[in-house]
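Sorry, I am new here, but would you mind making up a protein's amino acid sequence and the tokens describing how it folds?
***
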Amino acid sequence: MGGVNEAREPLRVVGEVVGWIGHTPESLQAMRAGLAALQREGRAQIDD
């Protein structure tokens, strides 16, 4: 298997998300801070 973002099978586009409102900059910053804390604590892992 290759990198983290590689799919095992070809991807097929089945629709388009419209009207989606993304996260606020404040929310994104809070998520990044939480991930950074997990990395510092040695708990940042991806369960595949």
About this structure: The chain has one helix and no strands.
